[in-house]
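User: If only I could read backbone structure tokens as easily as an amino acid sequence. Underneath my words sits a plain record pairing an amino acid chain with its backbone structure tokens. This is the protein in question:
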Amino acid sequence: MIRIDNIWLALGASDLRKGMDSLLGQVVQHCTGGAAKHSAYIFANRSATRLKVLVYDGAGLWLCSRRLQSGRFVWPQGEAGSLPMTAEQLSWLVVGAPWQHVAAPHAITQV
């Protein structure tokens, strides 16, 4: 399996006709300044009916795509930038569920 420690959702619409080099360019420009080891970057087309996930495993890039048979992916509003996600949120996103309602892990505080 591919190890993924960090997940970033790329805000705005992406041209998913592009390949991994163009999507990597978007990562450099809008997300984190460069692909980080064991990180996944998620992109959607304008109508949010297709996703592409670019994964950098430290040795190379993986490019995965997903299309729902019906409906749309729940995609946040925004023009550029990125949004961190949890693995659980990603699991909800790829099935078309409202992933924003899945809470991010809370920091543990000592009393």
Residues 6-101 form one domain. The radius of gyration is 14 Å. The mean pLDDT is 85. The beta strands are 6-10, 39-44, 50-56, 61-67, 82-85.
